[in-house]
Structure formats: C-alpha cells, structure tokens
Amino acid sequence: RSDAAVLAAVARDPFRADRKRPPGxxxxxxxxxxxxxxxxxxxxxxxxxxxxxxxxxxxxMPGGGLAALAGQAGEGRVVRxxxxxxxxxxxRVGPATATLVGPDTTLVLQMDxxxxxxx
Length: 119
Description:
It is built from one helix and seven strands; from the N terminus they run αβββββββ. Strand 4 (84-85) and strand 5 (88-94) form a beta hairpin. The strands form two sheets. A four-stranded antiparallel β-sheet has the order 4-5-6-7, with no helix packed on it. A three-stranded antiparallel β-sheet has the order 1-2-3, with no helix packed on it. By secondary structure, it is mostly beta strands. Helices cover 9% and strands 33% of the residues. The protein starts with a helix and ends in a 9-residue tail after the last strand.
C-alpha cells in the first residue's frame, strides 16, 4: 500500500510549475461548508435613450417656422412647427435652433456650424 501511495503522490507532482491553487480552502473531514453571502441584487436603471437627430437648417417666420432635420437613419426632411417627426413634435424654431417634444423628452437641437462656413 505504501508503494501505491508514493506512486500516487509522484503522479500528482505537488512541485510542478503548472500546478494551480485549489479553488477553495482545505476542509477537514466532517467540517461544514459555509457558503458566502450573496449580495442583494442591485436595481439597475435603464440607460437613457440616445437620439441621433441633427438640425440641418431653419427658417424663422412669424407665427412658426420650418426646420430641416436629419432623423435616426440620417434621412433629411423639412418639418413645420406643429408637425410630427419620428415620434416628436416640432414646437419651436429659432435662428439655428429647433425644439422637439416627445412623450417624456424634450430635445433642443442646434446647428453644428450655423454660419455655413468651413473651419
């Protein structure tokens, strides 16, 4: 029996370089296993939606105006104050700005380069 124990120990080679530490600590026979406490689940807030609208241009007129808007897919469209655009209503147009109001979000868009020149 001692030869078998020695051969088994040699086969396991406790000093080999690729040996890894066991995942848990050694427990004596009959010792109860205690599980670590799991933290209570944390309530995660949903990330805020991202809107990819761009303001391409505005026309300010008495009693309203027009805004050239690029939508989520990048397509452009001219919208009059009071009209819907991809779930939002255009409520205000100013020089180089437009305000879109949705069910729970208000977006104020500004033109990237209102003068039209190059930088």
